[in-house]
Amino acid sequence: QVQLAESGGGLVQAGGSLRLSCAASGRTFSRYTMGWFRQAPGKEREFVAAITWNDFSTHYADSVKGRFTISRDNTKNTVYLQMSSLKPEDTAVYYCNCANFWGQGTQVTVSS
Questions:
Q1: What confidence score (pLDDT) does residue 3 get?
Q2: Structural contact between residues 1 and 100, judged by C-beta atoms closer than 8 angstroms
Q3: Are 20 and 83 in contact (CB under 8 A)?
Q4: Alpha carbon distance 41, 59 (integer Å)
Q5: Residue 48 in contact with residue 94, Cβ under 8 Å?
Q6: pLDDT the model gives residue 1
Q7: Residue 30 confidence (pLDDT)
Q8: How many CB atoms are closer than 10 A to CB 81?
């Protein structure tokens, strides 16, 4: 069992920045690829970014490349999503993912 808890969401103006955090517990966090997904109202959940457990290689959705950065700190069992140059279309609930487990989500709202 894995417990994931996201934090750091909020309301920000277009062009602004936010950093999301996801604290994991319950398993060997360092041995899992971690990911961020998001779901906007009326839309399906979509992939945002992922980071592997061994070489920390990263992968991004085309829509966020160059603006978002995923990172992890295995000593703190935490994965981060640094979001910059935010756009109104980034508005969504952001979810942390590990294997088949999901956090409760954190709302990000970008105003124009």
A1: 92
A2: no
A3: yes
A4: 24
A5: yes
A6: 79
A7: 78
A8: 27
- Record the tokens describing residue 16, joined without a space: 């602004």
CB 22 within 8 A of CB 77: no
Identify residue 80 by its one-letter amino acid code: Y
**pLDDT at position 63, please?**
98
* Residue 88 per-residue DSSP state: G
CA atoms of 91 and 98, how far apart (whole Å): 22
Paired tokens of 93: 């609930």
In 3D, which of 42, 49, 43, 32 has the Cα closest to residue 84? 49
Confidence of residue 29 (pLDDT cuts 50, 70, 90): confident
For the record, the structure tokens of 50 come out as 């992922």
Residue 28 pLDDT > 80, yes or no?
A: no
Q: What is the Cα–Cα distance from 104 to 89, expressed in whole angstroms?
A: 21
> Band of the pLDDT at 38, cuts 50, 70, 90?
very high
What is the spatial distance between Cα 112 and Cα 97, in angstroms, rounded to a whole number? 29
Q: What is the rounded distance in angstroms from the CA atom of residue 107 to the CA atom of residue 32? A: 24
